[in-house]
Amino acid sequence: MALVALLRLVRRLRNWIDFPLRGLLRLRHPVRRRSAARLDATLSQLGPAGSVLRSRADHLVARTGLAPGLRRFDEREQSEILAYADLIETVLTIADVQFAGETIDVLDVGIGDWIYASALLGVARGRGAATWPAVSMVGIEVDPWRLYRDGHARIDWAEFYSADLPGTRIVAGDFLAWSHSADFVTLLFPFVDRATHEQWGLPGRFFNPPGILRHAWSLVRENGVLLIVNQGTTEAEIQEQLLVDAGISIVARLTNFESPFYPYQLRRWAFLAQR
Ligand SMILES: C[S@@+](CC[C@H](N)C(=O)[O-])C[C@H]1O[C@@H](n2cnc3c(N)ncnc32)[C@H](O)[C@@H]1O
């Protein structure tokens, strides 16, 4: 116990020093074009054309207009992006979400490396009332300068994954300082327990799950939706209590969701609220 407490203290001290330091240095190493996989080869691994799984993927790719974007990525990335699209599309389908405006504003909170940017944008666009509505998407990240082992900063990857998406913008900063509303607000894997928040290198002052949830909900426009996704039962239970405490009603949910396109260790839970 004492050792665990000591390790956490050391981690907190490290975060307290590291976080402002990387914000000051802003070390960058942009991701350059790498080899891409053939999308039809990735899809054909799901089964022959017309099989159940393959049809699900083909339908998803067509509905979201994902094909050109996916062709830039390797096989793992293509599969993971498909899994994100699958999850988001599945939960929006349950609630029959339609965005009525000529344009759709998407706000994604805590984007990480934003591997799923094209999936989020594609699903949102596919749910517009207009045939091919314009989508404007903002992704906010409080720790974009974090360096990965490959030498790239988180924002380098986020820029790479969102490079071909028109109307998309990355904002570096604390979400609680953001005040523009949107039709579709997403919290994909927000931190709901302090230990995970600290493991990811963030100082304690940013740990505010109820505040982030309430602020996200306050920015959802009329007829808009808030989507929250968590991993594993423990996080989902904490999340559900946060929603109850905030008085936010759920109109659709996914429990223990597993997309056939990409396996994760922990299954996904999703909560959708509508204004
Ligand atoms: C578990 S990660 C999820 C990343 C991404 N949404 C995904 O699905 O891979 C949570 C992210 O939220 C970011 N974050 C936490 N608090 C934030 C805040 N107050 N404002 C903006 N981003 C925040 C973290 O830095 C981290 O990148």
Radius of gyration: 19 Å
- The strand order across the widest sheet is 3-2-1-4-5-7-6
**Distance between the ends:** 45 Å
Query: What's the CATH topology label?
Result: Rossmann fold
CATH-level-2 architecture: 3-Layer(aba) Sandwich
* Structural class by sheet pairing and helices: alpha/beta
CATH-wise, what's the superfamily?
A: Vaccinia Virus protein VP39
| Heteromolecules bound | S-adenosylmethionine
Largest sheet, described in full? Answer: 7 strands, mixed
Order of helices and strands: HHHHHEHEHEEHHEHEE
Give average pLDDT, whole number.
94
Give the tally of structural domains. 1
Q: Which geometry do the CA atoms define? A: globular
Look at the structure and give the CATH class: Alpha Beta
Count of extended strands = 7
Strand content: 15-25%
Notes on the structure:
The protein is of the alpha/beta class. It has one domain (2-27, 38-274): Rossmann fold. The protein has ten helices and seven strands. The chain has helices at 2-25, 39-44, 52-64, 67-70, 75-94, 117-126, 154-162, 194-199, 209-218, 232-245, and strands at 103-109, 134-141, 168-172, 182-188, 220-231, 252-257, 268-274. A seven-stranded mixed beta sheet has the order 3-2-1-4-5-7-6, with helices on both faces. Helix 7 links the parallel strand 2 and strand 3 (168-172). The radius of gyration is 19 Å and the shape is globular. The chain binds S-adenosylmethionine (SAM). S-adenosylmethionine binds at residues 109-112, 140-143, 174-176, 188-189, 191, 200, 202, 206, 212.
